[in-house]
Amino acid sequence: AYCGSEFGISRAQAYRLLDVARTLAAIHDAVTAGPGTSRTRDSDPGAAAALDYGLSQRALIDVSGRSGDVAELITRRLATLAHSGLQALDEPTVRAVVRQAVRDVRTAPPPPPAGPPADPALPELRRVVDDLAATTHQLGELMLEVAPAYLSDNAAADVLAPLCEQIGEDLENGLAARRYAMSGDRRALHGTVL
Predict the structure, then answer these.
(1) Among 80, 107, 134, where does a domain finish?
(2) Which one, 90, 106, 137, 180, has the greatest CB density within 10 A?
């Protein structure tokens, strides 16, 4: 009731914003705890909080249930970069590490269920499907570079047809990969790639 009267947002939207805030807090903690990142902020402690990672609200919501995984990945990658001999990690480098970690966790398959599967071939089949989905997501990102998300499927088809022909990909599969890259939902691939 408070969110509705004070901010004009629904309860669901308020909880989504809380998920976004928790995820951003976990990312911020991972960035500021990383070796070499404190020198990028020098004497301004508020600069770290103001760093814009360029992440969409949708991406942050998608990884909110796995923010610990994102933070651990960021910490590990920043430590690797710091130990590789870089004097200080600049903001573009930190931003790129954060964005890649969120993308990797967002597109990673969900953890396997506990307990042994009934069919021993099932884990291998899941791995193949997960690899195919990851590759298709990369293809979809390429399609989005050529035909941005604001284009309808019909307009995108006109733009993507020459590219799909050149790389030997079916246009319907290219459009499905583009929809998958936009939504992150594997159901966009049903009937085409999967």
Answers:
(1) 107
(2) 180
